[in-house]
Amino acid sequence: MSATQNKNSLITGLTLVALAAMVAAYFLPLWWVSLTAPNYPPDAFPDGIRIHFHFDGVKNGCSTPPKTSRLASETMAEDMGEGTGRYNPILAEQNTLSGKATALDCVHEMNTINHYVGMYPIASGGPVETKLSKFIVSFFAVMLLAFAVRNKKARLGILTVGFGAIAAWMITDQFVMGKLAAHVQHYMTESATFFNDPPRIQAWGDNVAMISKVVIGGLIAAMVVVIFGVAKFRSFELLLALVPALLPVFYLIEYSGWLWFFGHNLHPWGAFTVKPFMPTVFGEGAVAQFSTYSYPHWGYGMLVIVFICLMLALLLRRKQLREEQAQVSAR
Q: Within 10 Å of residue 253's Cβ, how many Cβ atoms?
């Protein structure tokens, strides 16, 4: 096997490892946040009030307390049992004590805590990116598959077929099946959970619908630009790996931006008045009597692997392109 073939195999291997890590990151929690306070003792809340941030939304991060914890049983009965405002017999199988629930819904718990200082529900953050994340990650996956292939015709074929499938899926899912409209309605309902401010919530819903359509159109436009760029410019192929490689950077910017939004858009109807603040992005902090913790999770580790593998692959491919250009110039 020649040196060129060895290098191509190494680049392909690194790219496929990055692709697998990126797909894994989509299904794993990227970041976790926890609140602890004296009124949430470890006996009932082993991890505090903990939530997990995923590409497609925020999920419960509370683990099951010890079965011997009477406080935990009493707290769960009060929060999730029949006769409470949250009891839903249709969903009891998954979410209540009469079903399979073994831990508190800490997303709900954190929303309840946050609303006392005027903070909107967590679901009101990232309404466009979370619901379109499956298409964005798929877009990057097609780019990486194309980058792994050296033959130009095969690369263009992968991009054309892959992007065409994503565009058709996206339009069908969001418009034909009506999921965009349903999401906007759900978003408005969630945002009004504690502070039913119709003019503001309606404006936010209209913005989500408009921005979602712009992002969908922009994603399709980006597909066309990528295909055109690969077809016309030799070095454009480097962008196929460079953009997905920066996912951990994009996520940190996104995460920090929404934390700023939550801390600087406090509703005046909150029971307690606090000055606008920046929630902790990384590390430990404190808000009132609560200690806060914010750290990366397994999914973000996968994104770091994506970054490392693709940067190595890019350096190798860039060197390869320069060597090929030098050979052409020497003829």
A: 11
